[in-house]
Amino acid sequence: MTDRIDVPAAGEDLLDDLRWRGLIQDSTDLDELRARLASGPITYYVGFDPTAASLHVGHLVQVLTARRLQLAGHHPLLLVGGATGQIGDPRESSERSLNPPEVVAGWVGKIRDQLSPFMSFDGDNAARMVNNLDWTGPTSVIDFLRDVGKHFPVSKMIARDVVKSRLESGISFTEFSYQLLQANDFFQLHDRHGCALQFGGSDQWGNITAGVDFIRRRGGGPVHAFTTPLVTKADGTKFGKSEGGAVWLDGTMTSPYAFYQFWVNADDRDVNRYLRFFSFKSRDELLALEAATAERPFAREAQKALALELTTLVHGPDEAQAAILASAALFGRGSLDSLPEGTLRAALSEAGLVQVQALGTVAALLREAGLVSSLNEARRAIGEGGAYVNNERVTDNEATVPTDALLHGRFLVLRRGKKSFAGVELLG
Question: In 3-state terms, what secondary structure has residue 75?
Fold first, then answer.
């Protein structure tokens, strides 16, 4: 966790801070919510469906917004959907594949463990984990249709954008009914825990307002809701994706080094928005980093600050420092010998790691690793002084690599010029 956190404590200041950061897109009534927050702590919830074994960086908006509210004195309920995770919220592209209940149950446990470090489970506003399977599982179909389905006009359910987009291509009753399940979650949490606020991503606005309306129809409330914007990238590519696929919070699925590099490589056009969404730095600190990006974009101060803060928050300070050291060492600005084996392998895998059965000439290895297209090009690079093995310049076109040069007995770091590097792993 980060040591320094600067989050407004008063209800009015909290909402103003969230709006300044761009974290509120839709809301039921901000003035009413402002008045409610000013009157004392509110119980709020945010939900996560277990559709994989880990959350990814796109979920961080919701996770860290929940953290901001708790730091401001409010009471968190973190819902991991053991029931809704078996159904799946409709998506515009196609019907989801249903995962076996036992798989979903395993993912519930993993995601609960993953959420835990972000919140405090002690004190007057201790966080609480909840699972919607606890109230959905025991409910019969008849009871659900009578007690929940009766309150949902089909005309409103069809009006939801994602449903409208699927009407021609086809949508199952299973996915169509997801809205009822999520709305019932808000009702159940309101009834059981006094929950009066739900937030989520903007793609959940229809589900969230359905819950607000359902509570009203059942005689409850008042309750409140808001959504955060979906995170986008200026170049049009999907946020949270790297060359290896999704950027996961689980360190075994996305290494801490790759996680760090994801943020370091953020586009200058995106990084200021990312800082406001994800950083716990004060407004003055964020404005200073925004100015640095405008004045000295080549220094990447904002990206490095964001990468350090989030890697520390998600993976801990040791992994964050290891990622920084690896980043420097791979480009010749630090010692490769001091890097842990796992960090070195993760870094080389990101850059491109080729596996070989035997070590040959440096020129051949440069070609194998994809740093040059031919042996002639490799020899030219060596002759011009632009080829390195483990950060040592190679000057002999026919040089070979002794096995005692291997890092951790297995790896070599090859570099061409200042910025292009790749890894070699000796098998056997």
Answer: strand
pLDDT at 403: 87
d(CA 393, CA 72): 54
Q: Which residues sit in the known binding site?
A: 45, 178, 182, 241
Binding residues for ATP: 241
What pTM, to 2 d.p., does this model score?
0.89
Of all helices (H) and strands (E), which one includes residue 416? strand 411-416
CA-to-CA distance for 36 and 11, rounded, in angstroms?
A: 8
Q: Could you identify the residue written with the tokens 């956190």?
A: 5
The gap from C-alpha 273 to its chain's centroid, in whole angstroms, comes to 15
With CA atoms as reference, report the closest residue to 369 among 328, 317, 413.
Answer: 413
Coil vs helix vs strand at 220:
coil
Q: Which residues are annotated as a binding site for L-tyrosine?
A: 45, 178, 182
Q: In which residue ranges of the chain is pLDDT below 70? A: 1-12, 93, 243-244
What phi and psi values does residue 95 have, to the nearest 5 degrees?
-65, 140
